[in-house]
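Tokens in:
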């Protein structure tokens, strides 16, 4: 079940990853102690062989505390003949019975044992104190996969054990909490829960549903960095600058949105963003650039390596486990060339790759459903091509070890039988008005197909009446079986009903169709083909084209387009849940008199972390570009606006609307307003704090000062470093949009910008910790006057707790407070009598007169000497 809702923007899927560690450890121990038997190759034999199986069961930890989770692990000593992780030959129908202390029994079944080691496991949480009896039953199995082992028999077997549940819990290591500070890859392998915030964007046709189902996404317009993709924005002046006034002005560079959309099929893998450079006016003719997702630092570029999509393959064998392949695939026709992402060495080439409906498997394999059908004989074949099957079938590549590990690149023919995981015949009558074709799938469960030209590109008219849809099972036990086929009457009044690529909602198990002329939607059950609701949802006239056919995500259908309003319908019943763009402040896309549209064209570009991201743009924009187009993040469940940012990214044509990539909490896209690539997400901050260097006397106040700055890589770019030599201030989430447009997009400085909140705390001379106040910064500067209340040494802490725009930061300093200053009263002179008042000056006058007379006498004597 998908976790659809987010709490503060991060979907927390609390999984017990500890179980996997235990599983692998147990696998190793059991493999050493009781080697699994791989039966020898054999030709067809008569009579069939009979293999006596031995069942085993183990639970860990044992004993365990009530309410704590244990892992119950069951297996046989044999692996079934011909088993491979690239095929579906497996043991079946394992059963685990759990008898509780009160006598009640709970049963867990494995219809298919997916592990190639013939083992299965389940987490279990006991809720009673006492003895549990665990019984593993293998009912036996007759080999029915064909070939040399057909009709061989594996006998039934049973294993039983006791699980002791006690009151006291068993100690265990705590999970590493989700990060509250700035982080980057690689992610420590002990941090199991961090997979709820981290992700990759692999690109390619398998991800054209534009729904990032894993990890976090940006909840603020904060820009991490912006790097030139090509010359963009205003040209400046005109074309004729000789002999007089320019005749052509207000020129902007070519945006490519007619048919050469920039930034096509970006890829994010392991924290590295890959995007293709335009070549002149062409959208994808240049090479590729690899940059650090968080900093924009250029890691390498190439004119010859131009990856189309990425792959992270989870390699699981009895002896080896883990993602062994981080490959970038470059395609040319039916040839795929794979490059090791870490070294960019060519390690493998696949030739003769078949065409088909593509998706990623749960293990990261790239699979294609290859479908062929003869409308004359009314028979066909459905095959599952698997690129990992093609690779692992070639022993020279991996030699029994993890793949690919060859020092030299190898070339493999990917069209051989070994490259297909399975092949089943289709004997049902699928005829209709056109050749049968695949529409989409719920992986591993069901395939939806059509036998009429009800597609987005062909736009059938009512002469395609009725139109035919059908569904085929993909489950191992019924693969290839026709589940239903239905004919539907074409809509009245010459209305065209059409399909988009992958219109299936896996949450409600419904698929949608759209009436081309009105924009009304209709939903059908993929399990039965029955109409669920519709047609519903009259769209405004300008909602024509673009994303008007809608995109399923989170159990809803999201419709955008040139009308500028986003509509959210429940895929369960067609109820209109919310609209965005036709309301007041915070819910408006009105363009006033800036455009002829009335509202800015608003196209659904991506879904992630409980949000829908929309971009504005047109198919063939005039120059200069209209002002005010924006990227927007909208709450996918309420329609509330989360953030916006000036941006022109969308082409407004078909499914290639606005190439974006979302992973690890960041979103990357290109902006035609200036020809640059932007990455938006939560960034780091830096704080300073100062207090008086000299001691202050008790009873006087002190001034505490400091700064809180945005230190994302973009603030060090040439223009930003020159304009903000003292750094770029960190501002509040509410001010983020206008501030980022001022810092990076040459827009006027907003006058209503507010800073972030800074909390000031001290540890006083008595060792007591306390907050002394909080203050909001302005221009990155904060201050607080405070009067200490005791003498001695203080440690001062300034803290910013973080926001949707920034990670937290803090700074520390110290100051001292001396005792209060003491003051001494001046000594009073003795009182004088009236006689003293006159006698003292008289005596002083006589003494002065005698002294003067003495000096005069001396001078006269000296003068008379010869």
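Residues out:
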């Amino acid at each position: 079940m998908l976790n659809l809702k987010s709490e503060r923007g991060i979907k927390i899927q609390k999984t017990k990853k500890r179980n996997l560690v235990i599983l692998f450890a147990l696998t190793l121990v059991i493999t050493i102690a009781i080697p699994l038997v791989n039966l020898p190759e054999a030709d067809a034999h008569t009579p069939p062989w009979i293999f006596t199986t031995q069942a085993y069961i183990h639970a860990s930890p044992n004993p365990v505390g009530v309410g704590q989770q244990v892992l119950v692990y069951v297996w046989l000593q044999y692996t079934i003949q011909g088993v491979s992780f690239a095929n579906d030959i497996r043991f079946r129908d394992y059963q685990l019975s759990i008898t509780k202390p009160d006598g009640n029994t709970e049963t867990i079944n494995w219809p298919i044992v997916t592990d190639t080691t013939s083992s299965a496991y389940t987490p279990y949480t006991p809720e009673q104190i006492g003895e549990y009896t665990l019984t593993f039953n293998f009912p036996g199995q007759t080999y029915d996969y064909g070939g040399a082992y057909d009709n061989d028999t594996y006998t039934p077997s049973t294993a039983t054990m006791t699980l002791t549940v006690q009151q006291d819990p068993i100690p265990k290591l705590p999970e590493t909490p989700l990060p509250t500070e700035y982080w980057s890859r690689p992610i420590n392998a002990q941090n199991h829960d961090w997979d709820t915030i981290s992700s990759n964007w692999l690109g390619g046709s398998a991800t054209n549903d534009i729904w990032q189902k894993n990890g976090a996404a940006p909840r603020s317009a904060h820009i991490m960095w912006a790097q030139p993709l090509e010359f963009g924005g205003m040209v400046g002046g005109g074309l004729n600058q000789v002999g007089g006034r320019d005749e052509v002005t207000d020129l902007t560079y070519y945006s490519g949105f007619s048919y050469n959309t920039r930034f096509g099929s970006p890829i994010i893998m392991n924290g590295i963003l890959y995007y293709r450079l335009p070549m002149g006016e062409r959208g994808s003719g240049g090479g590729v650039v690899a940059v650090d997702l968080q900093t924009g630092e250029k890691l390498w570029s190439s004119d010859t390596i131009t990856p189309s999509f990425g792959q992270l393959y989870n390699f699981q064998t009895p002896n080896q486990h883990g993602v062994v392949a981080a490959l970038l695939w470059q395609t040319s026709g039916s040839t795929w060339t794979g490059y090791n992402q870490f070294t960019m060495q060519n390690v493998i080439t696949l030739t003769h790759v078949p065409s088909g409906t593509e998706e990623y498997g749960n293990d990261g394999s790239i699979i294609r459903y290859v479908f062929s059908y003869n409308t004359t004989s009314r028979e066909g074949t459905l095959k599952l091509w698997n690129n990992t099957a093609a690779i692992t079938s070639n022993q020279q590549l991996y030699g029994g070890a993890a793949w690919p590990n060859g020092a030299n690149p190898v070339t493999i023919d990917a069209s051989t039988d070994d490259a297909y995981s399975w092949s089943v015949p289709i004997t049902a009558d699928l005829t209709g008005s056109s050749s049968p074709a695949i529409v989409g799938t719920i992986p591993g469960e069901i395939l939806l197909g059509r036998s009429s030209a009800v597609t987005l590109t062909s736009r059938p008219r009512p002469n395609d009446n009725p139109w035919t849809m059908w569904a085929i099972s993909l489950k191992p036990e019924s693969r290839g079986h026709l589940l239903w086929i239905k004919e539907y009457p074409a809509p009245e009044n010459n209305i065209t009903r059409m399909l988009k690529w992958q219109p299936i909602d896996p949450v409600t198990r419904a698929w949608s169709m759209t009436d081309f002329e009105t924009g009304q939607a209709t939903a059908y059950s993929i399990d039965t083909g029955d109409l669920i609701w519709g047609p519903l949802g009259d769209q405004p006239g300008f909602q024509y084209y673009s994303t008007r056919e809608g995109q399923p995500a989170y159990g809803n259908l999201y419709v955008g387009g040139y009308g500028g309003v986003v509509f959210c319908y429940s895929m369960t019943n067609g109820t209109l849940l919310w609209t965005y763009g036709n309301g007041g402040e915070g819910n408006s896309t009105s363009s006033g008199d800036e455009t002829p549209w009335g509202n800015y064209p608003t196209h659904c570009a991506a879904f992630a972390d409980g949000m829908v991201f929309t971009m504005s743009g047109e198919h063939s924009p005039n120059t200069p570009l209209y002002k005010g187009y924006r990227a927007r993040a909208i709450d996918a469940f309420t329609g509330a606006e989360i953030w916006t940012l000036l941006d022109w990214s969308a082409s407004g044509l078909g499914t290639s609307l606005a190439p974006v990539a979302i992973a690890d909490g960041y979103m990357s896209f290109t902006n035609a307003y200036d020809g640059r690539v932007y990455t938006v997400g939560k960034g780091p901050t830096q704080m300073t704090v100062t207090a008086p260097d000299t001691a202050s006397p008790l009873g006087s106040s002190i001034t505490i000062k400091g700064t809180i700055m945005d230190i994302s890589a973009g603030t060090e770019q040439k223009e930003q470093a020159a304009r903000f030599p003292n750094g770029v201030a960190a501002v509040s989430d509410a001010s983020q949009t206008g501030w980022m447009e001022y810092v990076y997009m040459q827009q006027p400085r907003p006058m209503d910008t507010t800073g972030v909140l800074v909390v000031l705390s001290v540890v006083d001379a008595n060792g007591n910790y306390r907050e002394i106040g909080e203050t909001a910064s302005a221009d990155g500067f904060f201050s607080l006057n405070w009067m200490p209340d005791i003498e001695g040494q203080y440690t001062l802490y300034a803290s910013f707790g973080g926001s949707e725009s920034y990670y937290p930061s803090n700074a520390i300093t110290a100051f001292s407070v001396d005792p209060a200053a003491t003051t001494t009263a001046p000594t009073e002179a003795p009182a004088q009598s009236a006689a003293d008042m006159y006698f003292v000056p008289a005596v002083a006058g006589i003494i002065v007169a005698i002294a003067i007379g003495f000096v005069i006498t001396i001078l006269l004597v000296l003068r008379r000497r010869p």
